[in-house]
Structures are given as C-alpha cells and as structure tokens.
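Retro notes
What went well: the complex prediction finally ran end to end.
Inputs used:
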Amino acid sequence: MSFPNACGRPTDAPALRFRSMCCFIVPPGVLKKYARDASVDAATRKSLQDTYVETERLRGLREAHRIATLRDADRFLADAAVHVPAQHLFDCMHRKGLPGKAVAAPTGGFKTVFDTTAKVAEFYKTVLGRNSVDNKGFDLVSSLHYAKAYDNAFWNGSQMVYGDGDGKLFGEMYLSPDVIGHELTHGVTQNLSALRYEGESGALNESISDVFGTVFNQWLNNWAVTEPRGWLVGAGIMAPSAQAKGFTCLRDIVQPSARHCLSPQPELYSQLDPTADVHENSGVPNKAFATFARAAGGQAWGNAIKVWYDTCTNRALRSDATFSEFAMLTIASALKIGGAALQAPCSSAWGEVGVAPASP
Amino acid sequence: MTQSPDASEPTVRRVRIERRGGLAGLAVSAVHDFAALSAAQQQALAKVIDAAASNPPARTRGAPAGAAPGADRFSYRLHVEDSAGAERVIDLGEDAMPSILEPLAKPALP
C-alpha cells in the first residue's frame, strides 16, 4: 500500500524502516492512524508504530533544542547590550563642517588619535569600570584637521574635534595624550553631573577634564605621582616657537601659576576672579587634586583618581556645585575608599588651596 | 545702524573683539577701527550686528548665553562703538562667529 509523505507523494510503508535514509517525514498522525489500522499487516503496523514513537522522540528533542536556542538567543541579546564603543574618524579637510569625510583606514595623525582614544577608553574601563562616556558603550567620534590653522580642540556635545594648531603657539592638538583624555572626559561629565559651564561649576568641569586627562597620561606612561611631566596639560601641543620662549605646557596642575605655563592659573581660592574664564579658575581644584594625589603617593590612578571619580558619579554632585561642595564630596569619597588614611590628605589638600569644605 | 540711508544715524566706528575659552583658555582682546576692516569683514560685522538686534542669543542649558554646545569652545564678545559714542555688546558662540572675523582676535605669544 502507499503512504503519503510530507510532500504529498506516495511511498511504501516498509521504506520507513530505514529512517536514516529517509529524506522526508510522514506526518505523525498518518503513522498513528495506519499503525492502528487492522487492514494493515502486523509487521507493517509494528514498523509504523516504531516510527511513530521515534518521530515523537525526535519531536521532543527538537522542541528542547528550540527552547534552549531561544534561551541562548536571550543570553546573546543580553551580551550584545554591553556595547563596546566603536571608533569613527573623520577628516574635516580644513573646513568647519562636522563630522567631515569618513576615514576608513587611519594612518598618520588619524592613527595616533585612534590609538590614543582607544587607550582612553581602556583607561576608563580598566581603572574606573566605565564603559565609554555614557557607561553604555557610546561610540567615540573624532574629527581632525578642523578649520584652517585652528588652535583648539573641543568636545561639541557628541564628538571630539581637533585643529592642526596655528604653528606659532600650537601644533596638532591631538599630539598630547592628556588632551584627548581631557576632551573625552568632557563627555563623561556631560553624562554625569553636567556641571554648568560657568562660574565655579564651570571651573570644576574644566578641572575634572584636566585631572582625568593628566592621570590618563600618567597611566599610559606608567609614571608615578612624583614624575613632573605627568602633571602637565598640553605638553605635546606646544609649537617650537612657544617652547623657545620657555612655555612647556598650557597648564601645570602641580604649579598652576608657574612661568612655564602658557595659561597660568590662580592657585588659591582667595585669588579667584569670579568673572574669569573657566579654564583659569580651574587651577584651584587642579592643585587640590595634585596635592592630594602626591600626598597619597604611588600612582595617581590608584586611589586618588578613584576618589575623584567616586565624587563625579555621586548623585549629590549638583550641576551648579561650588568648590566648597565638591571638596566636601571628595573628602567623603576618600573616607569611603581609603578610610581616614586617605581622608586626611584629601582634606589637607583642599585646605592648602584655601577651600573650606561645605558642611555635609 | 550699519547701513542706514539716513546720514544722521550713527554708524559703526570701532569694534573691540574679545575671545575667551578654548582648551588653552587664552584671553584675547583687540580693537579695530571699522574703516580699517576689509569690505568683507565690514559686511560680516554688519550682519552680526543686525542679527543680534533681531535675534538676541538664546541661553542654552548649562552654558552662558550664545555659547556653542559642548566644552572648550571659543566664545566672543563684541563691543561695538558707534559714531555717537554709544556702545553695544554682542555675545557670540564660535559657531555664530563669521570665520572672516576670527583673525581679528588671535592670540600671540607673550
């Protein structure tokens, strides 16, 4: 007798004995029906019955596999949610349109930016446990050769932008690793406290970028807190003519008012000019951090930067925070992370720059 | 104010351009006589003055009025003095500053 296969073509029941050779599946209902059909001979009915049982066993296995696959897919999707930040590079070709023309294979300056940006992301990930600027793997976008002789680098709210410098004061603005760390840290601050970019909160915003940028550079070069080069901002971007005049950096976090700084800053709270630019008044919290980190000793990416990061991630840090409020939060973070042994130098550092911590 | 057909209306006599901000935070201030500017610069400045009169810069969240978004951006303040001696102040973020006027406030080595 003939049996319909899954494709509707007739076949013979005995062929079902050679399951391994079957390239089709007889519907289980059909197997079951004829296995109970008294008009079919006993041997064929036995074969049909065995095939039906085997088919059901395989159906069970398939269902188990399907469920397991679904569970794996869930796990896969969960893994995918932890996004590793990708990098995107663009060439502005000396114009101001952003982001510019995509760069597929980075070489020269683009390679430098790509490699250093990757290191900044690694620093944040391994030292501070942060996944990119938003802690969700935000892709990192950098545009180079912005405008003509542009003597600046900036964060525009969603990406980093680097000029080539004017050749008199500055060279290419990405040549200092701390500058790349500085700009990327603005993205971090934007996603955390969003410190208002004016007054003391603006100076704190700038200081945080200087601090994390320089500590990143120390980490990159494996410099201890005693290494003076580790506290310079923008040492790599100074043009030869600026260096010839004795300017070795934009800012020095240890000595903000030093003569070798192209942009000297006040070191004491009493010297603060409330109308000054945020990059000027940041000298006070900059020096407080350097004093604290040097007193704590070792490497700044040990406890010191973790104290500052703990403060930056503290919800109590308001967007209009003052130096005094920030100081209070860092002292609390120091106590939390390193106990009284770390709290004391932190408190002392703020005292040295004349900032009285706010009351908790 | 800048292109008035009425000869009795004051015209721009001088402009002081201040630049602040940028990663370096170097402050620059430079004074220029309007007549000494190139024709293109005069035209760009006139447009800025007219635009500021009709559209005062908006204050964006977390930044001063007229500031470009983000951080380490330049900001400009223009003090425009007219022939009658009156001065008006215009704040511009770097995105709003015409490129042709930027060289008027460039820093130099101390």
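What we learned: Residues 163 and 244 of chain A are 22 Å apart (CA to CA).
What to try next: split runs per interface for comparison.
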